[in-house]
Amino acid sequence: MKIAQKMIAIGMAVALFATTACTQYHAQGAGGGALVGGAAGALLDKKNHWRGGVYGAGLGALLGATLTDVSMRGSQEAAQANQPVVYRSDQGNYTYRADPYYDQNASTRCKKVRERVYENDRLVKDQVKEVCEGQRYDRSY
Q1: Does position 65 have pLDDT exceeding 60, yes or no?
Q2: Average pLDDT, the chain
Q3: Which of 43, 67, 86, 88, CA to CA, is 20 to 30 A from 49?
Q4: How far from 74 is each of 22, 96, 133, CA to CA, in Å?
Q5: Chain CA centroid to CA 66, Å
Q6: Closest CA to 31 of 15, 8, 50
Q7: Which long-range contacts link 98-102 to residues 24+ away (Cβ below 8 Å)?
Q8: Are 98 and 114 in contact (CB under 8 A)?
């Protein structure tokens, strides 16, 4: 088996293993990141497009799942504490901010949170997200 085929097989096995341990949102973020990263890697690696695609997909999936996790945790913390939550990258060039939106639905126990992402002090993402308190009902005897 060629080295490229081995790399693809290993990459697919790692991706399959990683997505089984994720929530639905993590899997969506990883899938989107893998798609964008794979396309970018294939375009950037002029000598071997497959190798670039595999590396890009792996890194993109990891970054996509990580960003989804930051978004989920930040919005939940802001909704529970009813206070703004701010995360900054180590270098300080990326900032995530979640603010309670003060438009809650009492019947569904959901709160809205406004999420903003800044890159080098420039707004790159602005959205309002609904965070609901989950309740579990068991039908046990």
Answers
A1: yes
A2: 79
A3: 67
A4: 17, 8, 15
A5: 5
A6: 15
A7: 98/74, 101/128
A8: yes
How many percent of the chain have pLDDT more than 90?
A: 10
Determine the 3-state secondary structure of 68 from DSSP.
helix
CA atoms within 13 Å, Cβ hemisphere of 67: 21
* Cα 50 to Cα 12: distance, rounded to the nearest angstrom: 13
Sequence length of the chain is 141
In three-state secondary structure terms, 127 is: strand
Alpha-carbon distance 51 to 69, whole Å? 27
Distance from C-alpha of 133 to C-alpha of 125, rounded to nearest angstrom: 25
- Furthest C-alpha separation in the chain: 63
How far apart CA 39 and CA 44 sit, in angstroms, is: 9
Which tokens sit at 79?
Answer: 């909704």
Q: What is the pTM of this model?
A: 0.61
Do residues 112 and 104 make contact, with C-beta atoms less than 8 angstroms apart? yes
Instruction: Give the other-Cβ count within 10 Å of 35's Cβ.
Output: 15
